[in-house]
Design goal:
The protein has four helices and five strands, in the order αααβββββα. It is an alpha+beta fold. It has a single domain, classed as Beta-lactamase (3-Layer(aba) Sandwich). The longest helix has 21 residues.
Length: 132
């Protein structure tokens, strides 16, 4: 995908809205939702094996995994065009999106983005202990 950071945030909101009334911007503007609830759920459902604590499963472009301590599901995707690296993490039960992008590709960019994500999650957990 090629989009602005603001549009990427709207994309995250659409996916976070799975099953909830309004589906992001469509609720606010009165427009017809871009995707039906059934379509969103299909995009988020792993192919083959059920979701379990053994690791990440594949779901139509998303990695899906169970978060520890029964705190819900995470949908994740990362990628690079060799000049940029980006990662999206949707923590469904928390209704929270973490979007990270850097203007560098490669392994060092992936490592840096993973470190930033881990730091954000730690900070969120300390600020909101209910979201363990």
């Amino acid at each position: 995908m090629h989009l602005t950071l603001a549009d990427w945030a709207r994309y995250a909101t659409l996916h976070l809205s799975e099953g909830r009334a309004g589906q992001g911007d469509a609720h606010r503007t009165g427009a017809k939702p871009l995707l039906s609830v059934a379509s969103l759920r299909k995009l988020h459902t792993p192919v083959g094996d059920a979701i379990d604590p053994s690791g990440i499963k594949y779901a139509m472009g998303w990695g899906v995994l169970k978060l520890p301590e029964g705190s819900g599901l995470e949908l994740t995707h990362s990628g690079s065009n060799t000049m940029w690296y980006a990662v999206i993490s949707l923590r469904m039960a928390e209704n929270r999106a973490i979007l990270i992008a850097t203007n560098q590709g490669g392994v060092s960019a992936a490592i840096a983005c993973a470190e930033v994500e881990a730091a954000l999650v730690r900070r969120l957990k300390s600020a909101h202990p209910a979201h363990k």
